[in-house]
Amino acid sequence: MIYCVTFNPSFDLVFSLDSGCDQGETYNQIPWEGRAGGKGNNVARAIKQLGGPATAVGFYGGAMGAMIQQLLTEQHIGCLAESVSGSSRVCLTLLTGEITEIRGLGPNVSTEISRVLLQRLRTQLKPSDWITLSGSLPPGLSADDVTEWITTLRPYCQGIIADLSGANLVAAYKAGVDAICPNLLEYQQLPNNFMMSRLSHIFITQGPEGVLWYPPSPTPPQRIFAPVVPIKNPVGAGDVFVGALAYSLWQGQEWNEALVRSVAAASASVVTKGVGDIDVSLFKELIPRVHLGEP
């Protein structure tokens, strides 16, 4: 199983306004889509689209939280949920030729509640399982909680991949995850001495330019070059990359082979209008067009 942790799940509401929009105007009859959001839930959905096993793990509050869980169930994604007071958040995306995102505030989650879900997950783990940790933290949690999750879970699973940012990403790296997946901006915001000792795999995602891969020292870095595809919606491509990576590693593939498939999957998602939806037929066609080389 692949357990996809979303610390701060959301109901994602996406409006498509091809002609753009102006502030202060009213727009009617606009195509929209609602889905279970938060980066970890996007990861789980990508794994399911590729044919893999995924369980979404997260904190859910109120009617909005119940609706997110229902949407996951409808997509045949298992859900390991811990109830919290308050309401799960709503995030709004406007597709107007450009991408505008408005992200709501999630419910407060205490360290005590976090530990309840953490122990529930630990008791379910098998040595062959993989875990992904994705997205922002809700109010009440900090980088110390990220450290506790990793040090608690890592002895019981095959590996952990972290797609976090800032202090949370640094904490995950120091706690001993197997890989981190910052985008270029997130990487540039890390401390200057971050790369002094490479203890884990570091994947810096760079959109159409592919992925810069720093294996653990002393192996030299490589670049995974992405195929050229028409881009309709890049939102969620990073989550697809993480999902495909976790699924490939769960299947027993080596890191280089898993990376090729992950870049192909991410490339096959940006051609769709959905957030992190994969054109599976195109994904299979793109695999031979992804190649590794020097940075």
UniProtKB/TrEMBL annotation:
PROSITE patterns: PFKB_KINASES_1, PFKB_KINASES_2. GO terms for cellular component: cytosol. The keyword Transferase applies. Residues 24-277 form the Carbohydrate kinase PfkB domain. GO terms for biological process: D-tagatose 6-phosphate catabolic process; lactose metabolic process. It catalyses: D-tagatofuranose 6-phosphate + ATP = D-tagatofuranose 1,6-bisphosphate + ADP + H(+). Keywords: ATP-binding, Kinase, Lactose metabolism, Nucleotide-binding, Transferase. Its EC number is 2.7.1.144. Transmembrane segments: none annotated. GO terms for molecular function: ATP binding; phosphofructokinase activity; tagatose-6-phosphate kinase activity. Pathway: Carbohydrate metabolism; D-tagatose 6-phosphate degradation; D-glyceraldehyde 3-phosphate and glycerone phosphate from D-tagatose 6-phosphate: step 1/2. InterPro entries: Carboh/pur_kinase_PfkB_CS, PfkB_dom, Ribo/fructo_kinase, Ribokinase-like, Tagatose/fructose_Pkinase. Belongs to the carbohydrate kinase PfkB family. LacC subfamily. Belongs to the carbohydrate kinase pfkB family. This is Tagatose-6-phosphate kinase. It comes from Sulfobacillus benefaciens.
